[in-house]
Here is the input.
Amino acid sequence: MTAEMRHFADLEWSIVPGPRTLPAAVFPSDQVQGEVVAYPPDQVARVLAGLSGLSVENDGEGDWWAWRATYEGQQDLFEVNMTLYETEPPFWGGSELGGITDAREALDFWKKVAAQLPGTYLHGSDARLYSMNGFRAAFIQDSGPQT
Here is the structure.
C-alpha cells in the first residue's frame, strides 16, 4: 500500500453537496464559493437505493438521520448514512462513507452518485472538498484512463 493510499484510509470520508462546479480542491471546505445544491433527502435516498452494490439496512421511515445502507464494491465494503441541513424543509447535508479504505472505490461510488446528483463532492476529515481531478491527483497514482 502506498503512502498516499494509507493517507486516504487514515481520513474519514463523506459525499456532500456543493456548488454545481468546483474547479479545484477547496481548503478549508467551509470556504466554498457559489450556491450549494439543495437535494431533498427522499430524492437522495431513492438515488442511493438505486445504485448497484448498495443495500439499504434501515430506510428510516421518514427519519433521514436513521437511514443506513451498506455498499459493496469491487474492492471495499462500507456503510453509508445521511445527514441533513437543519433547514425548513430539510435538505440533504451529505452521506458519511463509514469504513471506506480504498480510494478507487470511493471514486467509483462518487461517480455513480454524481451522475444523478450533480454538484456532489468527496469531503475528507482533513477539511478538504475535492473535485474529481483533484481527488485523482491526490489519491490515485495510476494515471490510467481518466473519466
Notes: The two ends are 24 Å apart (CA to CA). Residues 143-147 have pLDDT under 50 and may be disordered. The chain has one domain: 3-139. Residues 103-116 form the longest helix (14 residues).
